[in-house]
Design goal:
The complex is a heterodimer.
Chain A (H helix, E strand, L loop, with lengths): L7 E8 L5 H17 L2 E6 L7 E4 L2 E6 L6 H19 L5 E4 L2 H8 L6 E5 L4 H8 L5 H17 L2 E4 L2 H9 L7 E3 L16 H6 L2 E6 L7 H10 L7 E6 L4 H12 L6 E5 L3 H9 L3 E4 L5 H6 L4 H8 L4 E4 L2 H4 L8 E4 L4 H13 L1 H18 L2 H16 L1
Parallel strand pairs in A: 1-2, 1-5, 2-4, 5-6, 6-7, 7-8, 9-10, 9-12, 10-11, 12-13, 13-14
Antiparallel strand pairs in A: 3-4
Helix pairs in contact in A: 1-16, 2-3, 3-5, 4-5, 8-14, 12-15
Chain B lengths: L6 E2 L5 E2 L6 E2 L6 E2 L14 H13 L10 H16 L16 H5 L27
Antiparallel strand pairs in B: 1-2, 3-4
The chains are: A alpha/beta, B mainly alpha.
The complex binds zinc ion (ZN) (2 copies).
The site of one zinc ion (ZN) has 8 residues of chain B, from helix 1.
Chain lengths: 390, 132
């Protein structure tokens, strides 16, 4: 079915393209790989609204399209389909870059040998319990063994955070084959397309943007906001993926705490629609909780980098992965996680000291420009390809 | 003349819009020559051909009693696949299955949260800014 024998494969158990952080990351990294190798095959998740096969210049895209409601079934069938694609790819394949153990299992066990690069942003055995609370420890242990099998066999591992690197070393993976490539952001320059009227009318406001997973800490944010309701006219804006059960629960919490009229919800905004909300924000918050996903495995929150790139001061939970991006008091304020009182105190400080806000915002933008642009990330990734493919 | 409705683009998807050469024999959408599949003998669009290839691969007959169609569909395929590939220690679906029904059940969608958002679980396909 493939029209050209691919020299490179980028495989992701994610829908692509998408506005999620994962979608942004895949676009940047897959493009870097294909620019390096002169094209290749991108294999990702699709569905009804996505073409199952595309040819875009030197890149061929195949999307797994069969509907499987069950996560494990979907993962298994996705990997099997990749195995068949690898059969048809032949010996031309020199490098396979994948970002999930399901792709990895098909790749590292395939008889055609090529260099394998495992991009570890998160591990299902640690991330799945928040979405599937019914998953038993014995089941998660089985998934962890698959991860381990792939981690041990991959030629190289790239990961966005030192915290994740340390976790992998703790699992017995050789430090020498792990490269840390921090996420990137682009210093905002989106203008015109969407006007700022709505955001300006909401000023002054605290901004949260991202998903509503429990580990994001929205509950603590709403509780903190209730503690600063005396700050005149201050509002809280939450730009989230889409209206869900969790959103309704948070709305009820805001009502119970009597701050609902000052909480503004927006759902399903595009990056261009989000931009005015971001650039007009007084400050942005990443109130991540102290849970296994954020602590044991680590994470690398794009939203923090994106706020810094926009010159907006950040208040974030003081977690190891966050300290890799933000120095307390320099590019933002770090607060003890899961403590609404501490978060409220930091909000109060930034509300009352505009000079501090300006200095944190300016330093944040400079830090992104000097260290965390997508071009920095792409250059680090190219260095890994150069080493692996020489 | 109708315009080709195949989607294209790398960073985002948009309709092709080229003048259609014919209609796809399977989905009957208008399709231009560039979006016709050579392997179908230029009768199908690329999308339909790829879905067909995937469906054929996954839809080999299975015979697991007491599992629903979806599961049987996948299991049947896997038995054939594992016979020729080497990740047998982690296989699905036969007597030596790595995951048992108990493991599988906890990942049925109604036991998960609605907008799980984790890699590959946002089954409704809505946009999300989940951190990577
Ligand atoms: Zn068609
Ligand atoms: Zn077309």
């Amino acid at each position: 079915m493939l029209q050209r024998p691919p020299r490179a494969l980028y495989s992701a158990f994610d829908r692509f393209p998408s506005r999620k952080g994962a979608g942004v990351h895949i676009a940047r990294f897959a493009r870097t790989l294909f620019d390096y190798t002169g094209g290749g095959l991108l294999y990702a998740l699709g569905g009804d609204d996505f073409p199952a096969h595309q040819i875009e210049d030197d890149v061929e895209i195949v999307r797994f399209s069969s509907p499987f409601d069950n996560y494990l079934e979907r993962a298994g069938a996705f990997a099997d389909r990749l195995g068949v694609l690898l059969d048809s790819a032949g010996d031309s394949l020199r490098v396979a870059h994948f970002r999930d153990p399901w792709s990895g299992l098909a790749i590292v066990t395939h008889p055609h040998r090529c260099r394998t690069i495992f991009e570890v942003n998160g591990l299902p055995s640690i991330e799945l319990p928040s979405a599937y609370p019914a998953a038993a420890p014995s089941t998660l242990e089985k998934i962890a063994r698959v991860e381990q099998f792939v981690l041990e066999r991959a030629d190289a591992i790239v990961t966005p955070a030192m915290t994740i690197r340390d976790h992998l070393i703790g699992r017995g993976i050789a430090a020498a084959k792990i490269d840390v490539i921090p996420n990137g952001a682009d210093v905002a320059q989106i203008d015109g397309q969407h006007d700022d009227d709505e955001a300006i009318a909401a000023k002054p406001y605290i901004l949260y943007f991202g998903s509503l997973h429990p580990w994001q800490g929205i509950e603590n944010l709403i509780r903190a906001f209730a503690r600063v309701r005396d700050l005149e006219h201050l509002q809280l804006v939450l730009c989230c993926s889409h209206e869900s059960r969790q959103a309704k629960a948070y709305m009820r919490l805001a009502e119970k705490l009597e701050v609902a009229p000052r909480v503004i919800w927006r759902f399903g905004l595009s990056a261009a629609q989000l931009a005015p909300w971001l650039r007009n924000a007084m400050l942005s918050v990443a109130p991540l909780t102290e849970c296994a996903r954020n602590i044991v495995q680590g994470c690398s929150p794009l939203k923090i980098l994106e706020a810094m790139a926009a010159g907006v001061p950040v208040i974030a939970s003081d977690l190891p992965a966050v300290r890799e991006l933000v120095t307390d008091g320099v590019e933002g304020l770090l607060v003890q996680p899961d403590r609404p009182a501490a978060l409220a105190r930091a909000i109060r400080i930034l509300f009352e000291y505009p000079d501090l806000r300006a200095s944190l915002g300016g330093e944040g933008r400079r830090r992104v420009e000097s260290t965390f642009t997508w071009e920095h990330a792409a250059a680090r990734l190219r260095a890994v390809y150069l080493r692996e493919l020489q | 003349m109708n315009e080709c409705m195949s989607k294209q683009g790398f960073f985002s998807l948009r309709p092709c819009g080229e003048p259609a050469a014919t209609n796809c024999a399977t989905c009957s959408r208008p399709v231009c020559s560039r979006h016709l599949s050579p392997t179908s003998g230029f009768t199908q669009c690329l999308d339909c051909t790829a879905r067909g290839v995937e469906g054929d691969a996954l839809r080999q007959p299975g015979s697991n009693p007491g599992v629903d169609d979806d599961r049987e569909w996948a299991y049947g395929y896997r038995r054939g696949y594992y016979a020729s590939h080497s990740y047998a220690p982690f296989n699905y679906g036969d007597d030596d299955s790595y995951y048992d029904d108990y493991d599988m059940r906890s990942f049925d969608r109604d036991l998960g949260t609605s907008n799980a958002g984790i890699t590959g679980t946002d089954a409704d396909g809505k946009p999300d800014w989940t951190d990577s």
